Amino acid sequence: MSGKNYYITTPIYYPSGKLTVGNAYTTVAADAAARLKRMQGYDVMFLTGTDEHGQKIEKRAHEAGMQPKEFVDVMVADIKALWELMNISYDKFIRTTDDYHEKAVQKIYQRLYDQGDIYKHEYEGLYCVECEAFWTDTQAKDGKCPDCGRPVQLAKEESYFFKLSKYVDRLVKYYEEHPEFLQPQSRVNEMLNNFIKPGLKDLCVSRTTFDWGVKLPFDEKHVAYVWVDALSNYITALGYGQEDDSNFKKFWPADVHLVGKDIVRFHAIIWPILLMALDLPLPKTVFGHGWLMLNGDKLSKSKAAGANVIDPVILCDRYGVDAIRYYLLREVPFGADGNFSNELLINRINSDLANDLGNLVSRTTAMADRYFGGKLDAGIEAEAIDEELKALADEVTEKYSSLMEQLLFPNALSEVWRLISRANKYIDETTPWILAKDEDKKLRLNTVLKNLCEAIRVTAILVQPAMPATADKIFALLGVGSDERKWDSLAYSVSGDSCWETKTGAPLFPRIDIEKEMEELLKIMKKDEKAAEKTAKKEEKAGKKEEKKSEPVEGIAQIGIDDFGKVELRVAKVIQCDDVAKSDKLLKLQVDLGYEKRQIVSGIRQWYSAEDMVGKKIIIVANLKPAKLRGEISEGMLLAADSGDDVLVIFAPDNAEPGSRVR
Ligand code: MSP
Questions:
Q1: Which of 141-155, 245-259, 546-560, 634-648 has the lowest mean pLDDT?
Q2: How many angstroms is it from 259 CA to the middle of ligand 1?
Q3: Which residue range(s) make up the domain with 318?
Q4: How far is the CA of 418 from the centre of ligand 1 (A)?
Q5: Are residues 377 and 267 both part of a single domain?
Q6: Is the pTM of this model over 0.70?
Q7: What is the Cα Rg of the chain in Å?
Q8: pLDDT at position 538, please?
Q9: 250 with 370, same domain?
Q10: What's the farthest any 2 CA atoms get from each other in the chain?
Q11: Is residue 461, in this structure, part of any structural domain at all?
């Protein structure tokens, strides 16, 4: 091993639904970069995984009627199967529910707490569950999340805060001194203008309104904010905070965190500040790529659910894994947004893969077979046109390496296609079929075909990171041995005595009849729509039946688990209770929720005296908007049953902890 290390990561995905071809885009890009580095002799650590905690996952699990862990286990199995299908060569797959990760996250929190970078306060503001992100009023205009457009909800809870503001000057200085840190450069201004200049507030890093997360070691009522939990994966996966941290010592700081533009701010603000607080070096580069768009919209998991035509599994099945990998890397200018459409995809397959690359390989191997039985040996002196082909191969190789280093995949691939086009033109210019007619030109014909084989061999090495299986097929057709497949033997060279033993085979990429295929896709889409309609109707019918069954509560609208989840029921202990002076119906209760105390006013005086209530544990709606009753503020409502003429307060069991959630 050369001693050169390379550490590249993808974001860890929420296992909340089917992954889309948009998610596959990031992962394929990271895979191509990792494969190239391995070819170049680096010791590579390519990390991917899943981000399994948080309110969103908890909610999705409940919607599916499952426990969160049970739910994520199923989803993660699907994600791993997709990566296997797409030939993703990750070295490590981290799950944030892995025990070692959870423990290391606790150590991180403890350290930040001990050194005074985390403090307790109350959070009051807006939260988007879908993006697991906090927003200010100005950012979330009209109550909508600026990232996903979904409604944000008011969050008010006791929280721990992380002192982002303490480190912000250091971060800005870091941006200035390390222009390579955040790429493309345009993202730096985005961070400065949208988040840093308006004033970076301390970050709320714990939650108490749900418990699907890593418990804080110094206060078990709180779970870690999912983004701090998630970002830490980049170091915990290497053994940070664990007994064996040899990989951390070897690979940290990361060479590249590859992320979509929507999550750049977490990686370029929160993550570097966290690392500064932990006294660790920052990753060398955070690369924020653009989105793959479908009809002007970001492909999303929910949108993809019914649209089978953009499901990566179905796409790979219809067109082949390498065609999809190639399309993703070739079509979207890395850093900017790009469009996905089945039509664009099929056009790419037909023109670049079937016509250009596929034809070059099949024409060459077919001619080698026809004229020489597949055996090419000693040739003669190179002619000018051969030298020209070699010069272009050298130029392409050099440019390709530099473009790949900058993660400019489309540009790098387009260089390779310059070589492929030149080689196809070389066939037209050297006209092997005419040379074959003249016995005296046999040696020249042999040399021409050897040059073509060599150009294809170089091409196959260069397309290997993007299309590993195709490269292997080409090497096999040309009889290229394992040594000649390597990066070290990339240099184009046709020596007089080099030999080839080629084979012919099925076309690498059969041409697709675009009209027929589009018709076929339309049929699939219609079938999908019908199936979705059928399910909706079935559900509606089932709903109506349910309604009939529950006739006694006629008039009460049914709600989904989603709506119920919005109601925050908690156990509260009554520590004091008094009559409300200006009323003969109201009692004023001081209650303890464990994490805070508040006042609740309730109209139960006709049935309960103040003394009856003191010391009892009741259940309250804790997230009810505060209201004033007879001049007294009431922050919540207690639960009671209307039983005939009586009102019976619902008391919680004696051993129920104040503050615990009631579901
Ligand atoms: N769990 C967080 C990441 C935590 S990393 C410490 C997350 N997960 S995600 O599953 O929602 O998204 C993962 C990545 O997929 C993001 O980088 C996002 O930008 C990317 N993409 C999702 N849809 C995409 C497209 N349509 N196009 C390109 N990338 C897309 O965010």
A1: 546-560
A2: 7
A3: 313-501
A4: 32
A5: no
A6: yes
A7: 32
A8: 66
A9: no
A10: 118
A11: yes
